[in-house]
């Protein structure tokens, strides 16, 4: 049996749709249930549904053989995983945003940055030699500037609506993110045939989608 950790939330439906097209299907009852561990129609695959940040943890520790999670989470986690495939789902950007678009050039003091992604934020500002104080939050980061907790945020932008509706504007882009298939290193050795079959199946589905859309942009 292959265990697949799926990031709950924004990419869950797209991830399950891709897997179904690759032949790994959950029936409707299973999909609609609130159970967090489910077996597919063939009995060859188990799905576990976990918070995005926990996908690399389950996969790195070998509890899950593979996982589907955003590049944003992988950059933040720095887990030691194999990354065989960009699934092209849940496309978004990791950005620096602020209420005052000029704040980085205007401010002389230490800027406060609120984020769920403290490693990414520290690496980004560190590489540019900009001293910042990182304020770790768990969500609703866009509130921080308006309430005076931070000058800047580092967060994900998909449609841009959350930034707009909270009076924030993109100051810099840090990285693009899409959903990725990740593998546990030992599983890849020990269950090589089954995992290769899964990777190739997903790769064919992703390539067919890219071709149908008229080519990739990466
Ligand atoms: C993400 C992100 C932004 C929002 C961006 O939040 O942190 O808040 O989505 O999407 P938009 O550009 O389409 O408006 P998420 O839904 O993952 O929840 P959380 O950060 O509050 O936990």
Key phrases:
six-stranded mixed sheet, 36% helix, D-Maltodextrin-Binding Protein, domain 2, five-stranded mixed sheet, binds 1-O-pyrophosphono-5-O-phosphono-alpha-D-ribofuranose, alpha/beta, 11 strands
Write the layout of secondary structure elements.
Layout (H helix, E strand, L loop, with lengths): L1 E6 L4 H10 L6 H5 L4 E3 L5 E6 L4 H6 L5 E5 H7 L4 E5 L5 E7 L4 H4 L4 E5 L2 H10 L4 E5 L6 H4 L5 E6 L3 H5 L3 E9 L1 E5 L1 H6 L1 H21 L6
Parallel strand pairs: 1-3, 1-4, 7-8, 7-9
Antiparallel strand pairs: 2-3, 4-11, 5-11, 6-9, 6-10
Polypeptide structure, described:
The chain is α/β, with parallel strands linked by helices and 218 residues long. It has two domains: 2-90 and 178-212, 3-Layer(aba) Sandwich (D-Maltodextrin-Binding Protein, domain 2); 92-175, D-Maltodextrin-Binding Protein, domain 2, CATH 3.40.190.10. The chain contains ten helices and eleven strands. The protein has helices at residues 12-21, 28-32, 55-60, 71-77, 103-106, 118-127, 143-146, 161-165, 185-190, 192-212; strands at residues 2-7, 37-39, 45-50, 66-70, 82-86, 92-98, 111-115, 132-136, 152-157, 169-177, 179-183. It has a six-stranded mixed β-sheet with strand order 2-3-1-4-11-5. A five-stranded mixed β-sheet has the order 8-7-9-6-10. It is elongated and about 60 Å long. Residues 10, 139-140, 142, 155-162 line the site of 1-O-pyrophosphono-5-O-phosphono-alpha-D-ribofuranose (PRP).
């Amino acid at each position: 049996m292959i265990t697949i950790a799926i990031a709950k939330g924004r990419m869950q439906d797209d991830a399950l749709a891709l897997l179904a097209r690759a032949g790994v299907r959950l029936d409707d009852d299973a999909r609609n249930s609130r159970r967090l561990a489910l077996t597919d129609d063939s009995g060859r695959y188990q799905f576990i549904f976990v918070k995005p940040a926990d996908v690399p943890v389950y996969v790195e520790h070998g509890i899950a053989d593979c996982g589907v999670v955003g590049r944003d989470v992988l950059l933040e986690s720095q887990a030691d995983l194999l990354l065989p495939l960009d699934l092209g789902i849940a496309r978004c950007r990791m950005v620096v945003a602020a209420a005052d678009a000029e704040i980085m050039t205007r401010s002389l003091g230490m800027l406060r940055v609120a984020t769920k992604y403290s490693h990414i934020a520290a690496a980004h500002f560190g590489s540019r030699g900009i001293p910042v104080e990182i304020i770790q939050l768990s969500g609703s980061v866009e509130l921080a500037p308006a309430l005076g907790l931070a000058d800047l945020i580092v967060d994900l932008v998909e449609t841009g609506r959350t930034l707009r509706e909270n009076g924030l504007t993109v100051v810099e882009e840090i990285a693009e993110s899409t959903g990725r298939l990740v593998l546990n290193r030992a599983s890849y050795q020990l269950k090589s045939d089954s995992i290769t079959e899964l990777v190739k199946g997903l790769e064919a589905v992703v390539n067919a989608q890219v071709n149908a859309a008229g080519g990739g942009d990466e």
